[in-house]
């Protein structure tokens, strides 16, 4: 039913003159900074865009548990294990808030899950890269959660109420995630020469995939213009990517590691770091399903869904039995 919702809503943004009175009144509410709530009237394309973005965001949290969950049993100390376990559990919680926010728009969590499992909906490109060693887990917390924070802090002000409110708690938890990641990689960077080499290798491999998290360059972004007019997105992809580079380069230098991109250079005139763009053909290939781990990630989610069927069936049977007993007693 919602298959079309994952399709692009196109680049064209209507002018006020082209809007219906309902659409113009809706846009005026957005422009006045009002929050839109689930029962308010909204243009169908606004609803579609939100279901697509919130749904993909929820899927990213759930699929994003896989690369780190894989290291819980191999964390180097009990303390690191407890921290990683808490972080991975937090990501499940983020997925749940986001699925609930999407459900307020009239799509069921089961429908969203099916669209993830059969590949109709996307999740963040970053989770299609492998975590090869413990140092990668530090780099994921620091770089991936760090990028997620930069993307999500503005989303606390997004125009759809339930999404904005979910982001408040998510951002608090993401800050802890990024700090624990930085602490883990700092330990590696300050360790033996072999450990420092591992830290460098993690940063080298994950730097460009982290830059890709912010989406394609603005000129190729299908949804940005309309999403910004509706204040679903508060910034363009390139603006947030630049913010990430400016924030992270000094951190890499603080760790005593080499910058993974030789093209990184402070630009006095712009007041920002210049940097080399990621390989965008690789990005588009990954989001089409051809990244190093796409097949494994979807196989793991499908297996979890299939293995959990007996639990869902049992819960449903129990709920039906309770409902029938209630009717009989009335
Ligand atoms: N990966 O027109 P745009 C996390 C797609 S954080 C895959 O620019 P938009 C925390 C896009 O969907 C990660 N696909 O799109 C964590 C569209 O295709 P479609 C999740 C991507 O929506 C850490 C097409 O390209 N965060 O999980 C990506 O305006 C550690 C054209 O792109 C969010 O989802 C990508 N990176 O801007 C968890 C944040 N980028 O749908 C566990 C909310 C673009 O038409 C462990 N989302 N595409 O088929 C957003 O802010 C936006 O959706 C963007 C993309 C910025 C990601």
Short description, anyone?
GO terms for molecular function: phenylacetyl-CoA 1,2-epoxidase activity. With 330 residues, the chain is an all-alpha fold. 63% of the residues lie in helices and 2% in strands.
Question: How would you explain this protein's 3D organization?
Answer:
The protein has helices spanning 21-31, 44-63, 65-69, 78-103, 109-117, 134-152, 161-189, 193-212, 224-229, 237-254, 280-290, 294-307, 309-329; strands at residues 265-267, 272-274. It is mainly alpha-helical. Strands 1-2 form a two-stranded antiparallel ribbon. A hairpin with a 4-residue loop joins β1 and β2. The radius of gyration is 21 Å and the shape is globular. The protein binds Phenylacetyl coenzyme A. The site of Phenylacetyl coenzyme A has 30 residues, from α2, α6 and α9. It is an enzyme of class 1 (oxidoreductase). One of its GO terms (cellular component) is cytosol. One of its GO terms (biological process) is phenylacetate catabolic process.
Reconstruct the topology from this structure.
Layout: H1 21-31, H2 44-63, H3 65-69, H4 78-103, H5 109-117, H6 134-152, H7 161-189, H8 193-212, H9 224-229, H10 237-254, E1 265-267, E2 272-274, H11 280-290, H12 294-307, H13 309-329
Helix pairs in contact: 2-4, 4-7, 6-7, 6-8, 6-10, 7-8
The structure holds Phenylacetyl coenzyme A.
């Amino acid at each position: 039913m919602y298959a079309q919702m994952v399709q692009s809503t196109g680049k064209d943004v209507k002018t006020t003159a082209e809007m219906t009175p309902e659409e113009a009144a809706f846009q005026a509410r957005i422009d006045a900074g009002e929050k839109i709530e689930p029962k308010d009237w909204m243009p169908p394309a606004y609803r579609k865009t939100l279901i697509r973005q919130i749904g993909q965001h929820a899927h990213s949290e759930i699929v994003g548990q896989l690369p780190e969950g894989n290291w819980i049993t191999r964390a180097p100390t009990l303390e690191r294990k407890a921290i990683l376990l808490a972080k991975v559990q937090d990501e499940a919680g983020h997925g749940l808030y986001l699925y609930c926010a999407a459900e307020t728009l009239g799509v069921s969590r089961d429908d969203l899950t099916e669209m993830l499992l059969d590949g109709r909906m996307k999740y963040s490109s970053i989770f299609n890269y492998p975590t090869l060693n413990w140092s990668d887990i530090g780099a994921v917390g620091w770089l991936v959660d760090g990028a997620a924070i930069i993307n999500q802090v503005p989303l606390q002000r997004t125009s759809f109420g339930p999404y904005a409110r979910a982001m408040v708690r998510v951002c608090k938890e993401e800050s802890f995630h990024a700090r624990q990641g930085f602490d883990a990689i700092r330990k590696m960077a300050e360790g033996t020469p072999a450990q420092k080499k591992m830290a460098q290798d993690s940063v080298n491999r994950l730097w460009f995939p982290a830059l890709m998290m912010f989406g394609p360059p603005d000129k190729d972004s299908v949804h940005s213009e309309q999403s910004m007019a509706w204040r679903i997105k508060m910034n363009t992809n390139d603006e947030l990517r630049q913010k990430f580079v400016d924030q992270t380069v000094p951190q890499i230098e603080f760790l005593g590691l080499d910058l993974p991109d030789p093209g990184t250079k402070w630009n006095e005139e712009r007041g920002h770091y210049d940097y080399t763009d990621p390989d965008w053909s690789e990005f588009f290939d990954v989001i089409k399903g051809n990244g190093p781990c796409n097949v494994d990630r979807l196989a793991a989610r499908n297996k979890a869904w299939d293995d959990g069927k007996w639990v869902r069936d049992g819960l449903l049977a129990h709920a039906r039995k309770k409902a029938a007993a209630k009717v009989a007693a009335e």
